[in-house]
Amino acid sequence: MEQGSAREGVRPAYAPGAFSRAPADGRMPECRVPEQARGGQAGAERTGGRPADGEQARGEHTHSEPPAPRAVQRHSVRGQILDALRAALVDGELVPGQVYSAPALGARFGVSATPVREAMQRLAVEGAVEVVPNRGFRVSERGPRELAELAEVRALIEVPVMMGLARTVPAHRWCGLRPLAEATVTAAAVGDRAAYAESDRAFHRAVLMLSGNEQLVAVADELHRRSQWPLVSGPATRRADLLADASEHTALLDALVSQDLAVVQALVREHFAGADR
Predict the structure, then answer these.
(1) 160, 240, 249, 244: which is closest to 204 by C-alpha?
(2) Which intervals hold domain HTH gntR-type (predicted)?
(3) Where are the beta strands (DSSP E) in 20-98?
(4) Helix (H, G, I), strand (E, B) or coil at 18
């Protein structure tokens, strides 16, 4: 679901399993991990959870390893402010076309202007805001055409990748994404647009990460983030729209687990077709 989309109608919410081929008793296939995939876990159980001879336990530090560095507090504050500003963009609290100063926003968040200015500079690089000399930052104005173009580019990237993964990724790997899909449903149910935006991207990012192509994941995630910024005009995203898209995530997983490629293709194309409306 793209937060900036404005739709005239509401797509139906897909009940989990509605597009999967269920057994005769009506129950959905369970997410069972194949025996060979549990080999590592079984080995650990046989050794009492200890690593095998000659192996070093994961996360165990030797004396020659330096301790992990502490996080710099200033960077932490900037990251928190960046997250807060992104949420405000998605929620429409930062209005397209309006100019906001770093000191004013700093007072709003209870911090100095410096981390706000640094976060805003990052948003300027992403295209979410524009620098206005001696005044602050103007929230970028977007129209339906830009949203449609973003949806088209995302579809060109993600649809073929998802179809390729549907043919090669085993069912138990898809089952591992179930909590991410359910998180989008939870956020949609309460109409939390900012939480939905984060969980929506997390789900798509996890799917694409199965390809092993980190550059593809980074490009797709950036396009996804930009598609979630609000339009300069139009109604706010409705909870019904969020629920409709969230239900597509769970229906897609059902189809992937069942390896129903025809349904996977239909759902993926519908998901991106709805992104530009």
Answers:
(1) 249
(2) 75-142
(3) none
(4) coil
pLDDT means per 10 residues, the chain with 277 residues, are 46 48 42 45 43 44 41 66 90 89 92 93 91 92 88 92 93 94 94 91 96 96 88 67 90 91 90 67
Phi and psi at residue 130, in whole multiples of 5°?
-125, 140
Rounded distance, CA 1 to CA 249, Å?
10
| Contact between residue 234 and residue 146 where contact means Cβ atoms under 8 Å apart | no
pLDDT, position 68: 44
Query: Can you tell me the distance from the alpha carbon of 50 to that of 58, in angstroms, rounded to the nearest whole number?
Result: 10
Residue 123 DSSP label: H
Query: What tokens were used for 256?
Result: 């992937």
Closest by Cα among 275, 274, 3 to 128:
3
Q: What is the pLDDT of residue 53?
A: 45
CA angle at residue 111 from 109 to 117, to 5 degrees?
90
**Tokens in use for 215?**
């550059």
The whole-angstrom separation of Cα 120 and Cα 228 is 17
Are 199 and 187 in contact, with CB atoms under 8 Å apart?
Answer: yes
Tokens of 17: 């399993």
> pLDDT value at position 161?
94
Alpha-carbon distance 208 to 157, whole Å?
A: 10
